[in-house]
Specification:
Oligomer: single chain
CATH topology of the largest domain: FAD/NAD(P)-binding domain
CATH class of the largest domain: Alpha Beta
Number of domains: 3
CATH architecture of the largest domain: 3-Layer(bba) Sandwich
């Protein structure tokens, strides 16, 4: 698409990692016009991964959360409005309206509006002491209750829930984790790694209950006292953390007629169904060859890579979002690093010994490497990223042979195509 005229600013809705990346990316793309970033939270863009780990445990101060300080935006002539919500987009007039009545015209528009926590939909979830963990405000609310809380129930056995459980055990809390499905992290990990993490958490004293659906949250005088499961099991709780996933914020996009499909639908250049509007980050679903279809990814890497492509598109440069997806999770001293996907694999090969806490699982489909999960094995992870990016051949036998240095195989591969971000 041609670069927009510079009379009006490019407006970025969402002061998120994706939003900050788009703003910075526009300046890197030599966009000379004005840039306006509007965020609903009263914070400049900040890092979310520490919320369930170092910030929750008190090891990281609030001053370390911002992605960039205020001077960074000022020096690059990026105007920021925080604590204000965009309530409408008028595509014909090319302007946005915010909740204080203000209206801003735009030369180009980027949606980086993220996602919000899913609710449980059960009685008692509005009791004091029942809290999600998505924002820095959520984390601060949890931290204010920690001193008085001895027993914590975490609802949701995904990454956020288990990272919280690890952080809270480090603080000496009694922790129980409820997962509604048959194993931990079922959406993203195969059974072999679900079992590893269940052993890890139980070995640290966390009570894990799978196939545990919540019937209600019990309490009195407006405060939580217990979580009651469908089978009648009652878990006493001074604090309940809800981590049952997120839903993308698509309402603005839907209201102005943009196509949505498990998020705001974009193409490989981050363009929505209106080519003058881009979207990136947790709110956007995109075609992804590594997953074999359309997908919405909730990760730092995706927000960054897609945000860069969105900035290039707004500035008029052709760029394609085609990165190999990767992700990480820190729980206790076990660092999980994921690349590609395990979905649909027909064979997996173990490299290393789980008993030693350093191993990888390589996933193959019809003989082709599609992903790898590594725990305590960063070299395996980096090598798998290179192999997947280059589309390099790797046999299951090579992956499982500790006598073969996979780095040698990766070193012979050409770099990824230049158009990839």
């Amino acid at each position: 698409m041609a670069p927009p005229a510079a009379a009006d600013p490019i407006v970025i809705v969402g002061a998120s990692l994706a939003g900050a990346t788009i703003a910075d990316g526009l300046r890197r793309e030599k966009w000379q016009g004005d840039i306006l970033m509007i965020g609903a939270e009263p914070e400049l863009p900040y890092h979310r991964p520490p919320l369930s780990k170092e910030f929750l445990s008190g090891k990281l101060g609030a001053d370390r959360l911002p992605i960039r300080d205020a001077s960074f935006y000022a020096e690059r002539r990026i105007e920021t409005i925080v604590g204000r919500r965009v309530v409408a987009i008028d595509r014909e007039a090319r302007e946005v309206a915010i909740d204080d009545g203000g209206r801003y015209r735009f030369a180009g528009l980027a949606l980086a509006v993220g996602a919000r926590p899913r609710r449980l939909g059960v009685a008692g979830e509005d009791f004091a002491g029942v809290l999600p963990l998505r924002s820095v405000a959520d984390c601060r609310a949890i931290r204010t209750r920690l001193d008085a809380a001895r027993r914590v129930v975490v609802i949701g056995g995904g990454f956020i829930g288990l990272e919280c459980a690890a952080s809270l055990r480090g603080l000496g809390k009694e922790v129980a984790v409820l997962e509604g499905r048959e194993r931990l992290m079922p959406r993203v990990l195969p059974p072999i790694l679900s079992a590893f993490y269940q052993r890890l958490h139980e070995g640290r004293g966390v009570r894990i209950l799978c196939n545990a659906s919540v019937r209600e949250i019990a309490g009195s005088n407006g405060a939580v006292e217990a979580v009651v499961c469908a089978d009648g099991t009652s878990l006493p709780a001074d604090l309940v953390i809800v981590g049952v996933g997120v839903q993308p914020n698509v309402e603005l996009a839907q209201a102005c007629g943009l196509a949505c499909d498990n998020g705001i639908s974009v193409d490989e250049r981050a363009r929505t169904s209106d080519p003058g509007i881009v979207a990136a980050g947790d709110c956007a679903s995109h075609p992804n060859r590594h997953f074999g279809g359309r997908v919405r990814l909730e990760s730092v890497q995706n927000a960054t890579d897609q945000g860069r492509v969105a900035a290039a598109t707004l500035a008029g440069r052709d760029s394609v979002h085609d990165s190999v997806p990767w992700f990480w999770s820190d729980q206790y001293d076990a660092k999980l690093q994921m690349v590609g996907t395990s979905a649909g694999h027909d064979r997996h090969v173990q490299r290393g010994d789980p008993a030693g806490g350093k191993f990888s699982i390589f996933y193959f489909k019809e003989g082709r490497l599609i992903g790898a999960d590594s725990i305590g094995a960063p070299l395996d992870h980096l090598t798998a990223r290179k192999l997947l990016a280059a589309g390099a051949p790797l046999t299951p036998e090579q992956a499982g042979d500790l006598g073969i240095d996979l780095r040698d195989l990766a070193a012979t591969q050409p770099p990824p195509a230049a158009h990839r971000v």
